């Protein structure tokens, strides 16, 4: 699934966007990715499926922020504490992340057109080398973009070391 959707708002949604935009909008919104596993359990699917659907919803959400003209979004995707989950789940999450960053890079034309600057924050040395490389490519590629900022907290922690 793509990171960048073509805007698919119908006329009533476009009207709502217009109304919302006429007021004061936040300049920065943060999302904490949470509940993917609860979603999986509730719908009786594997955790991996929950994470995958969670990502798809995130892509929708980012598109809404772009439509609304919110310039900066921060996503708390994966904390250092999350590494304590089962090896199987961590591996699946890393593979999903690798695929998503790969996909993001393959959409670089759209990213550049939209002027999105991507910043990944966290202790990236904890991630597999392949993902570190993809993240570095995405950040270098988009570093001079200034229209919108997407911060992804990955291997982050709120706890002092
Ligand atoms: C990042 O993680 C490594 C491995 O656990 C650790 O040695 C290093 O101190 C951490 N860096 C920061 C800035 O916390």
TrEMBL record:
Class of the enzyme per the UniProt entry, highest EC level: transferase
GO MF annotation list: ditrans,polycis-polyprenyl diphosphate synthase [(2E,6E)-farnesyl diphosphate specific] activity
BP terms from Gene Ontology: polyprenol biosynthetic process
Keywords, sorted A to Z: Transferase
Pfam families the record matches: Prenyltransf (PF01255)
UniProt record similarity statement: Belongs to the UPP synthase family.
Protein's recorded name: Alkyl transferase
Lineage of source species: Eukaryota, Metazoa, Ecdysozoa, Arthropoda, Hexapoda
């Amino acid at each position: 699934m793509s990171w960048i959707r073509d805007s698919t708002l119908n006329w009533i949604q476009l009207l709502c966007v217009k109304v919302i935009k006429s007021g004061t909008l936040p300049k920065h919104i943060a999302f904490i990715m949470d509940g993917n596993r609860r979603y999986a359990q509730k719908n009786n699917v594997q955790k991996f499926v929950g994470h995958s659907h969670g990502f798809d919803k995130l892509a929708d959400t980012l598109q809404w922020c772009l439509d609304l003209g919110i310039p900066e979004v921060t996503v708390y995707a994966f904390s250092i504490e999350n590494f304590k989950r089962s090896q199987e789940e961590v591996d699946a999450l890393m593979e999903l992340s690798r695929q998503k960053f790969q996909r993001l890079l393959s959409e670089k034309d759209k990213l550049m057109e939209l002027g999105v600057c991507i910043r990944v924050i966290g202790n990236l040395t904890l991630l597999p080398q392949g993902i570190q490389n993809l993240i570095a490519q995405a950040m270098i590629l988009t570093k001079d973009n200034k229209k919108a900022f997407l911060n992804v907290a990955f291997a982050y922690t709120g706890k002092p070391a």
